[in-house]
Fold this sequence. Notes:
The protein contains eleven helices and ten strands. The protein has about 260 residues and is of the alpha/beta class. Helix 5 packs across helix 6.
Amino acid sequence: MAYQNLLLEQAESGIYVLTVNRPQALNALNATTLNELAQAVAQVAADAGARVLLVTGAGDKAFVAGADISEMQQLTATQAQAFSEQGMQVMHALEALPLPVIALVQGYALGGGCELALACDWIIASERAVFGQPEVNLGIPPGFGGTQRLARLVGRARALELVTTARQIKAEEALAIGLVIQVVPAAQLRDRGMAVARTIAAKGPVAVRLAKQAVQRGQDLDLANACAYETAAFALAFATTDQQEGMRAFLEKRAAKFSGG
Length: 261
Ligand code: CAA
C-alpha cells in the first residue's frame, strides 16, 4: 500500500520498518498521518509472518516533533476531542500489535512524538535524541496518552515534572530515568534496531507474542491474577509445534527452526 506521509517496508523477512515521512514539518502528526498510521498498523497486524516492527522518523532531525500545531490551532473543543481520540486509537493499536514494536528515535521526540515512542514496547535512542512533552507551552496538556504512559514508565513525579515544565531532555537523561533502554551513536541506530529485530525474529513467534501479552496485561492486574495469566500463557505454549521443536532442538544440540504454529 502506498502512503503519502509514511513509508512501510519489509526490510527483511518478518521485519517491518515504519517511517513517519513528513520531514518538511519534522514529521509532525496531522490527521492524514494519523489515518495512515492506523492503516499501516492494520497492515502489519494482518501479516501472520510479521515478527517485529521498528518505528522511526524520516531525516536526521526529528523522530516526530509532535501533533501538527498548524492543524490543531483552529480546532473546536469537540474537534480536539475527536483528534485526541484518533491519536489514542493509533497508540492503542500500535501497543496491541502481537509482536514487539521498537521505536528508533534519532532526533526530536516531542509531544505526540514522545507519545508515539511511548506506545512502542521500548525505545532505542541515538545520542542526538531529545524527548519532551512541551504541550503546556501551547496552553494544552498532552493528548495522545503522554500523561499516562510516561507516568507508568518513569514514575509519577518524573512524569509530572516533565509534563508541567515542558523541559526537554537529552538521550543520556532519558536513559537514566528509564524512558529509553539504550543509547547508540546516530550512525548505528538503524543497524542496532535491525540486530535486535533479527534476534527476536529467530525466536518462537507464538512464545514472543504470549510473553508480550503477559507483560502488558499483567501490568493492569494484581500480582496473583497476573501470575495466573502467565500460567495460562505458559500452558497454551505447550499446544504449539514451536514448543516441541524448541525443546527437541535443545536436546538434540541444534538450532531450533520455528514455524510459528
Ligand atoms: N507541528 C507543525 N509543524 C511543525 C511542528 C509541529 N509540531 N514542529 C515543527 N514544525 C515545522 C515548523 O513549523 C517548521 O516549518 P516551516 O519550515 O514551514 O516554518 C519546520 O517544521 C521546521 O521546524 P523549526 O523551524 O521550528 O525547526 P527548529 O530546528 O528551529 O526547531 C523544534 C525544532 C524545537 C522541534 C521546533 O520545531 C518545535 O518546538 N516544534 C514544536 C514541538 C511541539 O511543541 N510539539 C508538541 C505539539 S502538541 C502535541 O503533540 C499535542 C499532543 O500531545 C497530541
